[in-house]
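Q: Predict the assembly, please.
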Amino acid sequence: MAPRKHGPDFSLSKTWEDLSKNIREIQNHNASNLSFEENHRYAYNMVLYKHGETLYNGVRNLVIENLETLAGEEIVPTFPTGTSDPSMQNDEEDVLLKALRKVWDDHRSNMVRLGQILKYMDRSYTKDANVPDTHNMGLQLFLDHIIKPPIKDHLVSAILSQVRHERDGESIHRSTVKGCVDVFLSLEVDRDGTTVYKRDLEPVFLSESQDFYEKEGKRLLHSCDGPEFLRLAEERFEAEASRTNHYLSSQTTQPLLQVLKDNLLTPHLESVISKENSGLDAMVDNSQFDHLSRLFRLCRMVPTGIPCLQASLKKSIIRRGREINQVSLGDDLGDANDAEDVKEKGKGKAKASALGIQPAVTWVQDVLALKDKFDIVWQNSFQSNRELEITLNDAFGTFVNQNEKCSEFISLFIDDNLRRGIKGKTDLEVEAILDKTITIFRFISEKDVFERYYKGHLAKRLLHSRSASDDAEHNMLTKLKIECGVQFTQKMEGMFNDMKISADTTKSYLDHVSKTTAPEIELSVTVMTSNAWPMTNNPSACILPSQMDKACKSFEQFYHSKHSGRRLDWQLNLGNADVHVRFQDRSHELNVSTLALVILLLFENLGDDETLSYSDIKGATSIEPDELKRQLQSLACAKYKVLRKHPSGRDVKESDTFSFNHAFTCPMKKVKIGTISNKVENKEERKETLERIDEERRYQTDACIVRIMKDRKHMKHNDLVNQVTAQLTSKFSPEPMLIKKRIEHLIEKEYLERCEDRKSYNYLA
Amino acid sequence: MTRDTQEIEKKSSAEPQDQWVRLQSIDGFCYLVKRKVANASGTIRNMLDSDAGGYAEAISRQCEINERGIIVEKMVEYMGFKTYYETANPKEDVPVKEFLERIPPEIVLELLLAADYQEM
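A: Predicted assembly structure:
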């Protein structure tokens, strides 16, 4: 066969007639009956013979014609009828969206078929003519002839309506909506890639959602309790996220969730948290960790959430804390009355003093319980969030420090535990108790007050050998050291040291006297370094009976022989003594305070009926009146009446007389007579303590100012105050007024001088 | 038909039927070609595309090529050549020169037109 020739037998009209007929067939889904080769060649020839434009416009018109037909036949009949029945509406919308999708699929497959036979046109003609190729022409024509009013408006409102149905709890065909939304997503309206979805659907969808959630938020707030609101709100978040994932677009997820946050959470969170009977407080009270976790999750979504939660937590804790403070205060007052009642009824003193520490123990236990409660919530529900931890600590600190006795209470609590609480407990349990106490201790802002009380209580424990466990004591001390540094515990360690040295000293003294002349009284001495112990330095004066005096002298002699130049002061009010006393029935071993022994010895050589008056005793011992009354009370008016008071009664008056109670009986051989145990201080004691603390603070402030000025030589007033505050905060929070006063005091003492600018100071060496 | 049907590649019985398509020249020569090889031509690829229906050729898997047998044969040779070297080791030299030498000068122009039409 000869080479084929492209002859002049090409006829434009004939070719186009055949081709256009075939294109119509393709649009009627009859492509399978057509020859590709034939139609491709038609298009090829048309382009080859320079009739590309005719071909292009012809095809374009055929596509438009077809689209208009499809719109008229498939879409327009499915327009909503305006029924008011929601389920009818739902069905109608479904049909409309399906129709659109069908037209789209049809059109797209047509365009693929056309694109295949028009390939040569796309390669040669469209580029030169600068017109869109077949594929893009198809998209453009679809936009112009289908996605236009009124079809577009019906589609958009159908999609919105479908969403509304689903939000109202009806079920819809998600796949149908997705089919239509996908069409919107694949149609670009400009060169930047903005889609029909972005232009025509998303904005109205978002504003519709905004309206919906504005109403929904208010509705939920009024109709639901706190947990229910949170549950539903979270469900809404999940539902909307799933909606955008399943049949909208992921690009809408963030803006839509923002709409929810702005309308459902931000305006209502505060009201929900503070709802009475179902808000934060109720959830904490009922340990509803699930609800609290949800609350936390939701709060974390919006910027105002966490601060709002923080504020409410703080409020809640402080309110609870105040109640605890109130109870302890109430107990305190009630207890004072009780104690008086007890006195009048003549009951044992031991019981009264046990009650004395009860408010402290209760308070600390309540605070610990509260702390535990919130810690558990924090761990379980708040994912151990740092910000919230700070809030919790802050809130606890606030109310703990609002109880002005907090330091004393905590120290008493520790005292109680170290004396008897930890007996029979394992090391681990003891450790846990101490650790817990430390957590409250951290909240105290005035650590120096605590230090004072703790030292006092520690001293009493040591001197009366009341400490249950040496290990526990040291353990506690280590913990305090870790919290506050070496300086804080230095003196306490000094106390322990003194105890140890004293034990050795006593032993070598006893060795010494056993070799020489032993005094009648066996003596055990604790030598206390005066600045380490919290005791007053002026010992209560007392005239000692000769046997006791001798014993003291003997020890002094021994001690001075070892350490010359040291001064020994006897703190008789802190000591105690064991003494054998012969009563009518039997003899008892009495354990009494040293001063009580001094008093008892006065009765040693008296006849059965002889009495001593108060003033006799006072004269013979010269014990201070308050102390003397207390000692007499414990001997004559408490549970064990070794002395008789005439007339009998609860209080010791200066007109009373006393006699030895020969008829004293007691089932036990050993009798311990009322050492006064610790209890919460009364007002006067407290005042005294505070005065001492104030004094100490003045010294500390002075020292601190001088230290800083020595270093800096010259400083502005404000800087100095700030520095001092910063350095002292670990111990207490100094008032600016106090610092100012101390500065003036130091100027008077000529440590500092005021500069001429009246705003700064110079250090004077 | 003046000449026997030639088979360019041996048909393997394990491969499914639709792996193979028949190319027929205007003067009656038939070439059984693997679909993969036939797809080296854009036009034939479109012709055989059977996504959602397709044209008559896609259904019958028979393509009438409006060229003489000698042209179709060279096209098929080139399609095989192209398909092979597209997937071959890139280090291997493509013997373009040898291929060009195998084209008889008298069919060059006709082959060129056919190649343009067939988009290959």
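The first strand of chain A starts at residue 576 and ends at 582. Chain A has six domains: 12-147, 217-299, 305-339+351-459, 501-572, 575-672, 683-763.
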